[in-house]
Design brief:
- Keywords: Signal.
- A two-stranded antiparallel sheet has the order 1-2. The protein has a two-stranded antiparallel ribbon with strand order 3-4.
- The protein is an alpha+beta fold and 167 residues long.
- It starts with a helix and ends in a 9-residue tail after the last helix.
- The protein has one domain.
- The protein is 40% helix and 16% strand.
- The protein has 7 helices and 4 strands; from the N terminus they run ααββαααββαα.
């Protein structure tokens, strides 16, 4: 192997590693498979990966929250895009908190606690439901009432378990 080929390969590997590191999710939004928390939170106690739970209802889209507009509910910190959204949440948190603690609705139907992706979402009967990704969401959408019936039945027995213990 020539020195120039070896050098080009090293540069390519270094560039790929740097690019991958830049695209990796922030450690602050890490999903903890060893946590028995009932709500899917990051290492700082933030729910919904920092997305505004009220915006799903008002804007109809995942919207990043801001630390300056935060509220705590049941030990979880939620971030909001505005003071008005924070105040709406504080007035009726049960309306806006995600179903199944923000874990994947299809996962709960299958007796799993999988990370919920704020971009794979749907409001069902006024309640925010997340899925682990859009492919899983497609499967969940095939029978939302049936999948939610299974999830509702499973949630009481799995909600306090670690995701890892359910694997």
């Amino acid at each position: 192997m020539s020195k120039s080929y070896f050098r080009v390969s090293l540069i390519s590997i270094a560039a790929a590693a740097a690019l991958t590191a830049g695209l990796a999710p922030s450690a602050a939004f890490a999903y903890d498979e060893n946590s028995a928390a009932v709500v899917n939170i990051d290492s700082k106690g933030v729910g919904l990966r920092g997305h505004d739970p009220v915006a799903y209802h008002t804007v109809g889209a995942p919207t990043a929250g801001k630390a300056e507009f935060s509220a705590k509910h049941k030990g979880v910190t939620y971030l909001f895009a505005s003071a008005a959204n924070r105040d709406a949440f504080n007035a009726n948190p049960d309306k806006y908190e995600p179903a199944y603690g923000g874990f994947c609705a299809m996962g709960v139907a299958l007796e799993k606690k999988l990370d919920g992706d704020p971009a794979a979402w749907k409001l069902v009967d006024g309640k925010l439901h997340l899925n682990v990704n859009k492919d899983v969401q497609k499967k969940w959408l095939e029978d939302v009432p049936g999948n939610n019936k299974k999830a509702d039945a499973n949630w009481p027995s799995i909600k306090a378990k670690t995701p890892k213990s359910l694997a």
